[in-house]
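Recall that a protein's primary structure is simply its ordered list of amino acids. Everything else, from secondary elements to tertiary packing, is in principle encoded there. The following example makes that idea concrete.
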Amino acid sequence: MRQSLQIFYWGMLISFVGSLPPGIINIAASQISGKQGVSAAIVYAIGSMLAEVIIVRIALSGMSWLTRSQKFFRVLEWMTAGLLIVFSATCFISADSMQEFPVILPDLLLPPFLTGIVLSAINPLHIPFWLGWSTVLMNKSVLTTGPQQYDIYVAGIGIGTIAGIIVFIFGGQYLLKTFHSNQFLINCAIGFALLAAAFFHIKKMIFVPASVRHAKLFGQT
C-alpha cells in the first residue's frame, strides 16, 4: 500500500510540476476558459489528460518489454541521461529569451474534448519526458515493472495533469503574465532540477553495475 501511494505521488508530482511552465496545452486551456467558460475548459483538460495517460501507458508497456534486454536497458539509461541534460540546457538557454505568449486558438474548430485529445496527442514531448522520468524512478526503486504499478503511476500522472491545467483555467491571463514576468527564475529552477536528476542518474550508472541495476529492476537473482 505504501509503495502504491509513493508511485501515485511521484507520478502526480512530476506531472503537476511539468504542467506548470506555459506551453500549448495550458495556454489553450486558459484561452478556452476565457472564450467558452470554465466548464468547456475542464472538458478540454479531461481530453488532454486521457490522451496523455494512454500514450504514457502504451510507452511504459513497450519499455518494460524492451528493457528486459540488458543491452537495450543500458542504451535507454544513457538516452535518459542525455534527454535530462538536453532539457536542462534548453531551460537555461531559453531563460532570458522568452517571447510574448501567442494566441494559439483564435478560432476553435473542434469541441473542447477533441481539442484536448488532439493537442495532447501531437505533443512530441510526452514520450521522451515520461520515459526519462520513469527510468529515473525505476533506478531509484520507486517505480517497479508490472501492470498494476503502471496503472497506479499513470493514474497519478492523470491527476497531476488535470491539476496543472486547472491552475491555468482559473488563473487565466493573469497567471500567464505572472509566469512570463518570472520565466527566467522558473526556467533556471527547472534547469537545475533536471541537471541534478541527470547527475544522480549518471552517478548510479557509473557506480552500480548494469547487471545489478537490471536484476533489481526486474526481480532477477
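The radius of gyration is 18 Å. The CA atoms of residues 20 and 164 lie 6 Å apart.
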